[in-house]
Design a protein that fits this description.
423 residues, alpha/beta, seven-stranded parallel beta sheet, six-stranded parallel beta sheet, 14 helices
Length: 423
């Protein structure tokens, strides 16, 4: 099957370092693994337009056909929104010329590229919905033309053949958008959580030494976080919890006969919160034990995760259940790397970390609770055997149930059953 992948979001570079870039690459990689031909239409290749230093093309995607339709004339929020519409129209023209069997569009505000191309071709249209962008844009950024954003969203959702949503809350939101203007032939809505390509990751093998007592001991235990440094990721909570762990270990070391492993914290990723977080490290007196790696290319992530002993997803508390609508990509990657996970008990995370037949692969703690996070970290720091069991269980879980190829297979399996009509 020939697939046209449409990515009109001006904030996402296909070969950038964001989680959204990784998600796009992985779905494309899964489609290709299943034997399909994929052509991509996007607004930029890297994190920044016309900046090749922000472009990181994986070797296995070097031959991927990519057509860049840049956003132009976008000084200010209002002009940028209009420019996205123009870019989407050009993408639709190119997609029609491509004569694809399937159009796969990542939902982007002000884009109707998929529905425009679908209306002028015989291709089916799957729209991937990763967030309630209307709400998100107004809450965290700026949205000038709300009416046009709502109109393009409803048009895209109503005329798709399938909506593929990253989580149950996002699926509920999408259904709400469809029901606001009921019509015949509304598309089915499915949940397609994030996944991982286990082949890209190797299981964690800690460096152990044998003590005089005949037991094994690590010289260093490294706790880690992967992600963009933004407030909703709770990295500040992790720093406060880590400070508590260090204080507890210092008090224990005073009366300990055997040396304790050194503790380190590695923050993998960059973002607008970095300066504030570094200041917090200094305030807490933990700066010498915390490393900030900065933004990293997706190809470097597997190696970096292989150096962790414990991985974290310390999300803050939310006022409502639906505010945590993510399917955290980082957690699936932690599991693929064979690293035990401590995460906030939000969304799908509690059920995911309960694991499968191999047992639990992590632990959840109350969101926004640095004390609870610190206690969970201490339990895993002090129990290397439990860390090993959880790491093995996590790796097994994603290999059998959560690969990107499985996600793509399940999604495409729904298409033959759809009655596709021109709307």
């Amino acid at each position: 099957m020939r697939i046209g992948y449409l990515l009109a979001d001006p904030g996402i570079g296909l070969f950038g370092s964001k989680g959204a870039s990784v998600h796009a690459q992985e779905m494309i990689r899964a489609f290709r693994t299943l034997g399909h031909e994929v052509t991509v239409f996007c607004t930029k290749r890297g994190d920044k337009h016309d900046d090749p230093t922000t472009v990181s093309v994986p070797a296995d995607l070097a031959d991927l056909p990519v057509f860049v339709v840049p956003i132009s004339g976008s000084e200010g929020a209002a002009a940028r929104e209009v420019a996205v519409g123009r870019t989407a129209a050009r993408m639709a023209d190119l997609a029609v010329e491509g004569d694809f069997d399937l159009l796969y569009e990542r939902y982007s505000l002000f884009s109707t590229a998929g529905v425009e191309a679908r209306g002028r071709s015989t291709a089916r249209l799957v729209v991937e919905v990763n967030a309630p962008l209307l709400t998100e844009q107004q809450r965290h950024r700026s949205l000038h033309d709300v009416a046009s954003a709502e109109r393009s969203t409803r048009e895209t959702f109503a005329q798709a053949d399938l909506l593929s949503c990253v989580s149950a809350p996002v699926a509920d939101w999408a259904r709400g958008m469809l029901s606001a203007e009921p019509h015949e032939g509304a598309p089915p809505v499915r949940v397609t959580p994030n996944g991982v390509d286990p082949a890209r990751f190797s299981a964690r093998r800690p460096d152990l030494r044998r003590t005089d007592a005949g037991t094994t001991q690590q010289d260093t235990v490294t706790i880690g976080f992967l992600g963009t440094l933004k407030p909703w990721h709770g990295t500040d909570l992790l720093l406060r919890a880590f400070a508590q762990v260090l204080e507890r270990r210092r008090s224990q070391a005073l009366g300990a006969d055997a040396p304790q492993p050194d503790l380190r914290l590695q923050i993998i990723g960059g973002g607008p919160e970095r300066e504030r977080l570094e200041s917090l490290c200094a305030e807490l007196g933990i700066g010498e034990r915390v490393e900030f790696s900065g933004s990293v290319a997706p190809a470097r992530v597997p190696r970096l995760l292989s150096g962790l002993d414990i991985a974290t997803a310390p999300y803050p508390a939310t006022s409502t259940r639906d505010e945590h609508y993510f399917s955290p990509l980082k957690v699936y990657e932690y599991l693929a790397a064979g690293v035990p996970v401590i995460a906030s008990a939000l969304g799908e995370l509690t059920r995911l970390l309960e694991g499968g037949s191999a047992g639990a692969c992590g632990e959840t703690v109350p969101p926004g609770d640095p004390d609870g996070l610190a206690q969970a970290l201490i339990r895993l720091v002090e129990d290397p055997a439990r860390r090993a069991r959880m790491g093995t269980a996590g790796r097994s879980l994603v290999e059998h149930e959560h690969s990107w190829v499985q996600r793509a297979q399940d999604l495409l399996a729904e298409l033959p059953a759809l009655e596709v009509t021109k709307r």
